Amino acid sequence: MTRAIELLKNSFGVSQLYQHDVIKDDKIIFSIYWHPLTLAERESIIKKTPSEDTNDFVLQLMIEKALDKDGNRLFQDGDKASLRREVASSILEEIQLVMMQTGADKEVKQAKAELKS
User: Is residue 79 within 8 Å of 60, Cβ to Cβ?
Assistant: First the structure.
């Protein structure tokens, strides 16, 4: 029988890579890639977020986790103020929501089924 830790690492480990295309007028502007958020990363982002504002947390999460296809960060810490002031909140929220929710439903059900077998 496979150990639960192995099932979790294989199904939800940091080697998983997700992608989201940012689209405008039916054209892909750019693609964002990211690995799943770990508890250690969440704790680090919380420490970097000066307030308990959820918007600050998810913006910092996007800044730290968003990668290009080569694995390089798309945003730098200094981009935070510009993103807050100069980009429509709807597009930021779309990216953040996809990053927070990707893989959760389907993969959790799949892993639970594998644990039962």
Answer: no
